[in-house]
Design brief:
about 350 residues, alpha/beta, D-Maltodextrin-Binding Protein, domain 2, Alpha-Beta Plaits, 6-stranded mixed sheet, 5-stranded mixed sheet, 13 helices, about 30% helix, binds adenosine-5'-triphosphate, binds 1-O-pyrophosphono-5-O-phosphono-alpha-D-ribofuranose
Length: about 350
């Protein structure tokens, strides 16, 4: 696949000897220099689907958990940003979350995991297909101002100074497509800050900020509050709308497979399996409490007039469901955690 060299800057490649088995060869510490390492690595990527995953930050840990849950096995050598998957023709490419939309949009990698916020900020959103929402990395991109400050509205910030890591989205909000606020005719100064954006107002460099909020702790600690939400975001599995021409049908077929495995892992966290016995005369009522995803399974018991019911239940509802089932006359209520499942995407 072309574009590999763009995701493999020479600084990211460490000696092959760090992980000979991952290369499928018999490289030894002494047999290759950095150059041959690079060429071997590039060679071994040719027949693999490249999958970009966050190399650090808020999305990394959950992404790695998801890969493990989907039985995508790999060894990542120290400092190496590429890891060959052992049980599939896939190579993981570890990249900053903010860079992933561009690599996916350009077809340099076939799949990626990143936040919807950085996709929107990347200006590549139109070339990207969102395959699956992953349920983690949930946050909101918000305009924030000092709680006790003189400006308390987005309109009031027009013509002022905004600090943000989301220059594109902030400029779009304040200056529109024309580059100035269409109502006030003023241009808001949007300044890029790489991190700790919340400090900008206290430091006197901005009247307001645009940054991510999850719990709100960072915002409150800085004496700020939100006055507008630009967007809500979570981590998503993405692919390019126009797959790279060199992606073979075999490799292409891994995309729905990975999506389906991820969906199974997510569903197994979202649902539990409930089983109980109930007198048939109470069954209708019980089924309104546990209707199941498609339908509950009902089987007769040896004891006359009794049935056994099993059904998927949302994990967050489970205590309430058990209370209600008990009130309805259900007995022997058992709840099982799911290790994994396939329940439709
Ligand atoms: N507080 C948060 N809660 C949940 N998700 C978040 C939060 N902050 C960021 N995210 C999500 O994680 C993504 C990566 O953010 P993070 O700041 O961890 O990245 P990073 O790659 O370490 O970048 P940087 O080096 O610029 O901080 C964000 O684009 C967003 O989708
Ligand atoms: O609402 P909260 O739960 O407090 O989370 C919000 C904070 O999380 C992110 O920053 P992060 O901690 O990733 O570090 P950064 O400031 O270096 O980007 C974001 O930029 C906020 O600062």
């Amino acid at each position: 696949m072309s574009g590999i060299s763009s995701v493999l800057p020479s600084t990211t490649v460490t000696p092959l000897s760090a992980e000979p088995s991952a290369m499928g060869g018999r490289a030894s510490k002494s047999s290759f220099g950095a150059e041959s390492t690079m060429s071997l690595l590039v060679d071994s990527l040719k027949d693999r689907l490249l999958f970009a995953v966050p190399k650090k930050g808020r999305l990394m840990e959950k992404t790695l958990e998801l890969l493990a849950g989907a039985d995508i096995k790999y060894n990542r050598a120290h400092r190496l940003d590429v890891a060959l998957v052992q049980n599939h023709p896939i190579a993981l490419v570890f990249l900053p979350a903010a860079d992933i939309p561009r690599f996916v949009a350009l077809g340099s990698v076939a799949l990626g995991i990143t936040g919807q916020d950085v996709i929107a900020e990347s200006t590549h959103a139109e070339q990207i297909d969102e395959l699956l929402q992953l349920g983690f990395g949930k946050c909101s991109l918000q305009v924030q101002v000092p709680v006790t400050g003189p400006i308390q509205t987005v309109e009031g910030l027009s013509g002022g100074r905004i600090a943000t890591s989301f220059e594109v989205l902030a400029a779009e909000l304040f200056n529109g497509k024309e580059g100035v606020d269409s109502k006030t005719g003023k241009k808001t100064k949007v300044e890029y800050v790489g991190g700790s954006v919340e400090a900008a107002c206290a430091l006197g460099m901005a009247d307001g900020i645009v940054d991510l909020v999850e719990s709100g702790d960072t915002m409150r600690a800085a004496g700020l509050h939100a006055i507008h939400t630009l967007m809500k975001s979570e981590a998503v599995l993405i692919t390019s709308k126009t797959p790279h021409p060199s992606l073979t049908p075999d490799l292409q077929s891994l995309i729905p497979l990975i999506k389906s495995r991820f969906a199974g892992v997510l569903a197994s966290k979202k649902y539990v399996y409930a089983s109980y016995n109930i007198e048939r005369k109470h069954l209708d009522k019980a089924l309104t409490i546990t209707p199941g995803r498609r339908a509950a399974t009902v089987s007769p018991l040896e004891e006359d007039g009794w049935v056994a019911v099993s059904s998927m239940v949302e994990r967050k509802e489970v205590a309430k469901v058990m209370d209600e089932l008990e009130k309805t006359g259900a007995e022997d209520i058992l709840i099982f955690a799911l290790d994994n499942c396939r329940v439709g995407v």
